[in-house]
Amino acid sequence: MSCGNPTxxxxxxxxxxxxxxxxxxxxxxxxSLGNIVIRHAVYCKECFxxxxxxxFRRALEPFxxxxxxxxxxxxxxxxxxxxxxxxxxxxxxxLLDLVYRCYVSMDKSTMPAExxxxxxxxxxxxxxxxxxxxxVCDIFPGMKDRTPEVxxxxxxxxxxxxxxxxxxxxxxxxxxxxAHSSPGRIDLGVDLTxxxxxxxxxxxxxxxxxxxxxxxxxxxxxxATAMSSTINSLIRLLLLHTALDTxxxxxxxxxxxxxxxxxxISGVSQGRGFNVKEEMQEEWFPDRxxxxxxxxxxxxxxxxxxxxxxxxxxxxxxxxxAAWAWWSGLRVLGRETWPWPGLKQDIGTLTKNxxxxxxxxxPSTVSTIVRTCTKVAPKGEASGICVLCARPIQAGIQExxxxxxxxxxxxxxxxxxKTPVGPSLASHLCYACHTTLxxxxxxxxxxxxxxxxxxxxxxLPVWVPPQFSEKEELFRTQKMGQEKxxxxxxxxxxxx
Amino acid sequence: MPPRNCALxxxxxxxxxxxxxxxxxxxxCFFWVFETxxxxxxxEAGLFKPGDRVAIGASGGKDSTxxxxxxxxxxxxxxxxxxxxxxxxDEGITGYRDDSLETVKRNxxxxxxxxKILSYDELYGWTMDAIVSQVGKRNNCTFCGVxxxxxxxxxxxxxxxxxxxxxxxxDDIAETVLMNIMRGDIARLGRCTMICTQGEDTIKRSKPFxxxxxxxxxxxxxxxxxxxxxxxxxxxxDAYRGHARAFxxxxxxxxxxxxxxxxxxxxxxxVKEEIRATQxxxxxxxxCGYMSSNDLCKACTLLEGLERGIANAAITxxxxxxxxxxxxxxxxxxxxxxxxxxxxxxxxxxxTIEGAHN
Lengths: 496, 358
Prior knowledge:
The complex is a heterodimer of chains A (496) and B (358). Chain A folds into two domains: 21-53, no CATH class; 74-286 and 304-409 and 416-487, Rossmann fold, CATH 3.40.50. Chain A contains 17 helices and 14 strands. Chain A has helices spanning 45-60, 90-104, 147-155, 173-180, 210-219, 224-245, 257-269, 276-280, 293-298, 318-328, 347-361, 365-374, 397-404, 431-438, 464-470, 476-479, 481-489, and strands spanning 36-38, 41-43, 81-86, 129-135, 160-166, 188-191, 199-201, 248-252, 282-284, 307-310, 376-378, 382-385, 392-394, 457-459. In chain A, the strands form four sheets. A six-stranded mixed β-sheet of chain A has the order 5-4-3-8-10-9, sandwiched between helices. A three-stranded antiparallel β-sheet of chain A has the order 7-6-14. In chain A, helix 2 (90-104) links the parallel strand 3 (81-86) and strand 4. Chain B is α/β, with parallel strands linked by helices. Chain B has two domains: 45-279, Rossmann fold, CATH 3.40.50; 282-340, no CATH class. In chain B, 45% of the residues lie in helices and 10% in strands. A six-stranded mixed β-sheet of chain B has the order 5-4-3-6-8-7, with helices on both faces. A two-stranded antiparallel sheet of chain B has the order 1-2. In chain B, helix 2 packs across helix 9 (214-223) and helix 7 packs across helix 10. The N and C termini of chain B lie far apart (53 Å). Chains A and B meet through helix 6, helix 7, helix 11, helix 12 and strand 11 of A and helix 1, helix 7, helix 10, helix 11 and strand 9 of B.
């Protein structure tokens, strides 16, 4: 039997598998020795940069003009400005660098040589480019506030505006008033103890600060997954509203191919199958009333406000991002891990660990996931827009849920007699948001702060109440129908 | 803690926590809710019509044992008017099926249902033991999966049934949705969440347990005192599926609704029209008459590879080319009997129903 001594027996060592397929020369220039292997293909450092820039432009530029017109860049004329969502992580650091080089400092090395100096690509595309960072440190006690570091990093880039936000702005009526020039309200609450999610007004006597409202909302969520996905959703909505506020027609996010694959699988695992398309790219129309999708498509008018969310690094893997940052000498702040044991039970974190592990053994997995998801479309009609996450709601989901998982033996049984029956939030939520607020686990989320207590009635984020005041059936017709009618016809009424 | 009342009937004492909803309920309500959900699944999809002859794919494992019991119960309770059969496939794995086939035979007696057992050996001339001795453990699941599907259809055809029901549960379907996304199998992704699949010439095949959690199936068997054999296949090395299964279990532990949420996701999207147009049209195998996307069906290609000593012919392109380079198949090649999906008896496959009504 072999003693396995590699110095004596050459066979004792496992033959090392080559990292590349045929040659170690760059597949692009075919002259230099390669410096990086990207899914079995070898690239030298000089060819790597144009490759990533090309992928970046290819994922972004066809969608800059209001009407997507293919991969040309003869005349890029966006409707508004550009907002960069910045998290401090690797992807968004690379994204910021690319956006700055390509569209702010107009770095010649990022542009193709052909076309001459007069080529339209040498003109600035967006008049104003802003960078928005949402700080979440106030949720978790003892977490470091990184806003000053991010501000410093953004300040190194001339011509960028920095917009620092805090996650509790989602519950701050004054933030809403600043961003929308209309008064904000956080007077609408929801009862998270009942699956119908009955709405009720939050008593004005309970004057909580935005941070207190946020922390009570998070503490009252049933699972760790719910808390984590709610934080991500709040950040997304804050960015969207900021884009609107800054007159931005485009919001770019730094999701790499790898992180996009993670968010797609995580979304599917949380019931977001209907929104797979939006997870990759979406356009948000803030002024549209929730209505069936077929009618929505027809109404794309010229003056209508919209924000197009694009992930320009969707074809660039985590490894390529790391190489870009390393060779460009970028400072990556990194996203601080939340000091919270609940992350172990979070579907997002579990998915991330799973995909990262799978990527090592099966390197093509992430691109396969993303490619597969580009080939599917939502099935059936949308019945509206989710008031929490602003994504389309699939029609008939509540009936589906009650048929698949019976929760009562007779209709109406689920309603507790003591609970005042008011309007319900359930029918205004997408499947995933409803699941987030109602799905429980035998292992409830560990508290992120022992001082925060759960509440049966929690205030909803600041963008939810305005949507309900527009929904006549919920409030106006019920509470002020007569009065409203009287106001309309007042001028025609004779004194009694 | 004081004993809690059942969240459904509010009367009896709760004795279990439902894995699917987390509700604490009593035993009777559990039976009621489990059976009613399966009934809802069946009626919503309009799976059966009175007089249908339905074969239950019975492996002797938990899913099919509970399925046979529930199908019998619902057929009696709601007067579906179905004629039920048991159909078992013997893959020919020493020690794997022996005990579970005994369970199936006992079910046959208990429920008074005719039983048909069809073996790979009988149909293809190869047992899984013989296949593994030639191909090794790697890829052997490809053979078993392809052969089982066709064997079930052929067994059903021999029984002249209209419909096969299988015990695929919600966990299986959620796992398949994830797998198909991760390996880019767009055709299967489109159909894996369908409750009923039927090609032009094939027998209907449905999954009434599509929304039933694996844990609840075990719970049902436990409280109904149904016995079954839980045997891990000794040849099962499918590492990729193993990863997906472990991941799904983690998700379920984090939030039990994850299984149903994944199925919901799978049902909420469909393959884009332009992609569907590029997919291969279904045809029939020129050699055995079974449905196929190529001239030869997968089972015939696998069998030809086995017979000609190039077992990977249907798995890798390289092996396929090697097989083609060696010329056409010899005339005396062992083949699968020609498939006749009509209701006329298949002469190549005599109907021998084991111990029916004895």
